[in-house]
Specification:
single chain, two-stranded antiparallel ribbon, about 5% strand, mainly alpha, 6 helices
Length: about 160
Amino acid sequence: MTYDQPPHPASAASALSQPLYGATFGQAVSRFFTKYAVFSGRASRSEYWWWQLANVIISGVLYVLLLVLAFPGAYVDPATGVSQPGPLFILGIALYSIWGLAVLVPNLAIVWRRLHDTNRSGAFFFLAFIPFVGGIILLVFTLLESDPAGARFDA
């Protein structure tokens, strides 16, 4: 009787270059920050969409904080009816902006890797700049199942 040999354990570096299918929320967020500016390799659907959910939640919380910080000290000019936010509004804007800048490059990288997993060049990202339909096309591409031929993009 013969038995197949178990696969050799992959090194940490090669394991990160492979997509993590069935990633949990925590794993996806951790891998997002571990592969901060890595445009090579692939990202599974679960990696991509769990991160997108985390980003929406964090951005939403920061936006609500921005609005909350705008009210203390806010006033409406009785002559013109123009409202002015309070002085803490700038702090809310700063926090929201810092978050947006901090995740700009890694967001581009994870989209690029997600496109690789569907066996498309990351340059398909630029379709998003086509008015009206570009974003929809990119959304459809990120929703597609993984294509094993996308392994050609592995580092």
